[in-house]
Every structure is written in structure tokens, then in C-alpha cells.
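Before the break, one more example. Copy the sequence into your notebook; we will annotate it together after we see the structure.
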Amino acid sequence: MSRGLRYRSLDAMPPEMRRRLQEGEDHKQQKMGKSADGDQGFLMQPGHVGGKKATNATARRQEEEHEQQVMFFARIYDLSCTDPDRYKIPAERTYAIPNGGRRGKREAWHFQQEGVKAGVSDIHCAIARGGKHGLYIEMKSRVGKASQAQVKWLLDSEREGYEAHCCSSCDEALEVWKAYVDKA
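Here is what the structure looks like once it is written out:
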């Protein structure tokens, strides 16, 4: 059961309650890595991944992969609107698999309990075409490389009757997707 906030803002709280809340926040921030000089720590800053400081190159690569995947889904949605007879159902049956990212131990354990597995591809098109059961696409940045677990997933998927590709741009992924969807 969720309870709503009792006060509309911090200013509406009694001063003693505001002080205790602030002390609690200070304590939480110290646990999260906020230093005495006011440095925010590592958990909430851009450029940090899963509690570990990521290099700027890592953060940029992950952001580029995200942007490419967002553009890919926007473009297949556009195709489904402009040519619904050909692309509507395939676009509806294509989805992202939110499997990536670094996580803390507790969150990783929860996801593992729910069935999340390392290496699973980013995108799945769940329609059969050309004798294949479906299509898996692993998105990478222009300089990103697939991990061993991702390569294994792609190869195992091909052995199991799926088409599987590793793509380094929205355009490449869209080309692969359209070629797969247009197979007889």
C-alpha cells in the first residue's frame, strides 16, 4: 500500500522534521560516496555505470548504442505507418530486450532470479521468415565490440534456426531487419 506525501513541499514541513530528513539524506549520500567537499560521488553522476566509474569513452559508446537503438525503433514505427501491409505486424512483433547494463549485486541478483541472462541480444523480431524462427540483432556503437557471451548467443541462435546479426548503426540494423522481414 502506498501512502501519499503529507506535505506538499519541504517548506511546508515543520522545521524539526525538515532537519531530520536532511540529516537522513546526508547520511544516505555519505553511504553513496558523497564526500565532505560536496562531490556527488559515483552513483548518480553521468558517466558512471552500475556503481563503477566508467571512462568517458565507455559512457559515450553506451549512449551511442542507446541512441542508435531508439532511432531504429522510430524508423520501423515510421515504416509500419507508411507501408502497413508490409511492415505493421513485423514492427509490432519487434521489441527490445532490456538485458544490458552494469548493476549492483542486489539488483543483478533480482534480475537473475527473473531470468535475465548475459549475452542476450538487444532486439528480437518474433516472426518467422525464410525458414528462420525469428531475428536477433545485437546493437553496438561504431567502435563497440560484442562480448564473448553476446557472440555465443548469436552463434547459438543461428544453430537453433534464428537469423542473428551484430549491427553498428541504426542504418545497418534497419537494412538487416527489412531484408529479413521481406523474405518470403
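The CA atoms of residues 44 and 145 lie 26 Å apart. The mean pLDDT is 80. Try to locate both features in your own notes.
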